[in-house]
Amino acid sequence: MKQAITQGSNFWRRGCFGLALLALAMQPLLLRAQGNEPPVTRTFVLTGATVIPAPGQKLENTRVVVKNGLITAVAADAAIPGEAKILAADSMFVYAGFISGLSWAGVPSKDEPQQQGRQRAPEGVIPGTPPDKLAGITPAQTVNEFLDPEDKAIGELRSVGFTAALTPPRGKMLPGQGSLILLAGNKPDQMPYRDHLAVYAQFVPAAGVYPATPLGLMATWKNLYHEATSGLEYEKRYKTSPADMERPMYPEKVKAFYPVVDKTQPVLFRTNDDKSAFRALALQQELGFRLMLAELSRGQAALGKIKAANVPVFLSLDLPEKPKADAKKPEINPNPEIQAENDSLLKRQEAALKQAWTQAADFAKAGVPFGFSTIELKPKSFQDNVALMIENGLTEAQLLTALTTEPARLFGVSDVMGTVEKGKMANLVVMDKPLSDPKAKVKMVIVDGQVFEISTKKAGKADAGVKVSGKWDYTVESPQGSNGGVLQLKGADGDYSGTIYNDRMGRTLDLSDVSVDGKQLSFSYEAGGNGRSFTVQVSATLNGETMEGTMSVGDFGSFPFKATRTGDPD
C-alpha cells in the first residue's frame, strides 16, 4: 500500500511540475482520466500560530484547519485531518485577509498618448454634446469585462496581505460598476465575488468636451439622477398599468442609475481631498442617494459633515514619507523677510505631513468608522505607512478593524470575510510579527484556500563586472524532458525586473522578487492552470555570459536550470 501511494505521489509530482512550468490546463484532467493520480488535497493546517480572530482578540498556540477553501476549525486542539498538509506557523501571527475599499488591481492601465496644451474635441464631435463614452459617462459598464488575472498589481497588493478589493473600471466621471474581487484566480470569471456592488464615480473631467469643469460635472450628475428618477417612476407605472402608455425606452446609462435612485446600490465616490469630498456630500444631500467616499487624504476638514451625514469612508493608505533623520536642513537666508517666508512654508509642509499621518487616528477619535483604499498605495510602503499611523495615534485594533471587519460590513460580506472563524472563507494573512510592528513581514497569504508564499528577501548588489540585464535563452531538465524559452532581465542593483517566456506554453509571465547578491540571481513567478496556481522559484549563479542553477516548484522538486545571454533585453 505504501509503495502504491509513493508511486502515485511521484506521478503527481511530475504532472504538477509540468503544469506549473507549462500551464497546460488539460494535463491534470488527463491524469485523472487515466486513474493514476489521486485528487490534490485542498486541506491544510496552520499550526502553532498566534491567531487574531477579530480586532482585540488573541488565541495563542492555535491551529487553523482549512478544507476546500473554508475554515473548518480554529482551536489549539483542533483535529488534523489525515489528508492535510501541515503549514508550520510557529511564532507567526494569523489575521483575516485585508480588504481594500478601492483598488484597480486586476484592471491594467492602458498607455494612452498624452495631449499637450489645451485639449480639443476630436474632429466631427460637438464639444457640448459628445458621445457618452467620450464624456466618460458609462455607468452601465461593469468591471468584469476588463478583469485580467495576470495583472501584476494583483500579486503586489496580495504580497502585503490584501485578499479582496472593490475594483471598478478605469475612466473619467462615471466609469461603471465596481465588483468585490478576490486577489487570485487564473481566469477572469474566477475573480469576482460580488458583482455590481457600487457605481463608481469621480470628479475627473472629459478632455476637450463637456463636462470639462467641476460645475459641469456636478450639473451632469444632477441631470442624470433626475432623468433616472423620472424613468424609474415611469417604468413602475408601466408595469402596473401599461394601457395608453408608450413602452419605456430609456438609455442604458439612465437605467444603470435605477438602483442608485431606489437606494439599493451605493455610489462609491473617489474624493482625494476635502474639496472633492464636500462636492460629493453636497450631491448626496441634495439628491439623497447612498454615498461612500474613498481614497480621502487629509480629510479632517470634511470630518464633521461626513459624521453628520453618516457616510462610510475609505481613507487613503498612500501616506507621505517621513523625512530622514539625516536630511539636510535648509540654509538660513540673510534676508529676514525671505527667511520668515521660508519658515512659514516649512511649517505648512510639516502641518500637511502631520495631517496625513494623523487622519486615521482623527477619524477614529471622532467615532467615524472607516476602511482603507489602496488605489494610490505603493505596496512596498504599506508597512511603513502602518507604522506612521500607529506612531500618530491609531491603535492596532483600530487599524485591523479598518483592514478587515469594517470593509466586510460595508460591503455586506461579514458572513464570509473579515474574521478568522469556523465557516468563513479561508482568506488569511500570516506575518512573522504583529501587524503593528514596523518590522513585520508577510510570509504567507491565503485567498479562498489558495496558498501564496511571500518572499521577503532583500536585494543585494552584483559583484563588479557581473552583468545581469539581458536576453537569456534558458533550458530546464524536467521529468518530462528538456524544455526552455527566453528570460529577459533589466534594471540595476535593488531594482531589477523581468519576464519569462516558455516555448511550449507560448505565454509571457512577469517575474517578481528579482534580486542579485554577488553572483547569485534569484526570482520567482506564478504559473498554473485548471484553477491551480504554483510559485516557481529560480536560483542561479551568474558566470559571464552564462548562468546555471535550479528551478523549484514547492514540494514538487528542483530541476537543473541553465541560460546563455543572447543580447540586450527588448
Please explain how this structure is put together:
This protein is of the alpha+beta class. Helix content is 26%, strand content 30%. It is built from 13 helices and 25 strands. It has helices at residues 2-22, 26-34, 132-135, 152-158, 214-240, 252-255, 258-261, 274-287, 303-309, 336-365, 382-391, 396-403, 405-410; strands at residues 43-51, 59-67, 70-75, 85-88, 93-96, 98-100, 162-167, 176-182, 192-202, 267-270, 291-296, 313-316, 370-373, 428-431, 442-447, 450-453, 470-478, 481-492, 495-502, 507-510, 512-517, 520-529, 532-543, 546-552, 558-567. The strands form three sheets. Strands 20-19-18-17-25-24-23-22-21 form a nine-stranded antiparallel β-sheet. Strands 1, 2, 3, 4, 5, 14, 15 and 16 form an eight-stranded mixed β-sheet that branches. Helix 10 (336-365) packs across helix 11. The longest helix has 30 residues, at 336-365. The relative contact order is 0.13. Residues 1-40 and 111-117 have low confidence and may be disordered.
Task: Write the topology of this structure.
Layout: H1 2-22, H2 26-34, E1 43-51, E2 59-67, E3 70-75, E4 85-88, E5 93-96, E6 98-100, H3 132-135, H4 152-158, E7 162-167, E8 176-182, E9 192-202, H5 214-240, H6 252-255, H7 258-261, E10 267-270, H8 274-287, E11 291-296, H9 303-309, E12 313-316, H10 336-365, E13 370-373, H11 382-391, H12 396-403, H13 405-410, E14 428-431, E15 442-447, E16 450-453, E17 470-478, E18 481-492, E19 495-502, E20 507-510, E21 512-517, E22 520-529, E23 532-543, E24 546-552, E25 558-567
Parallel strand pairs: 1-4, 1-5, 6-7, 9-10, 10-11, 11-12, 12-13
Antiparallel strand pairs: 1-2, 2-3, 5-14, 7-8, 8-9, 14-15, 15-16, 17-18, 17-25, 18-19, 19-20, 21-22, 22-23, 23-24, 24-25
Helix pairs in contact: 10-11
